[in-house]
Amino acid sequence: MAVSSQEIEAALRDALQPDSLAITDDSHLHAGHAGAREGRHFSVQVVSARFNDLSRLKRHRLVYDALRTLIPRGIHALAIEARAPGER
Hints:
The protein is built from two helices and three strands; from the N terminus they run H-E-E-H-E.
């Protein structure tokens, strides 16, 4: 079963209690590319106080940890923009 944007949203909201969250399914941009058959491509923009004082790497780890059960089910690629409140 393919992973949906709604499942990603629910997992990130539960784990990160974000101030804002946007998820885009970019799979259509990768049609015909070899990995496109094996999973979907998503972009995530998330603002959360959980990211305060964390490096970019630690922020990405929190996002991946929140999605750990979904990734093997069909997330082929994930672009992450993770910011703390007030950051640009």
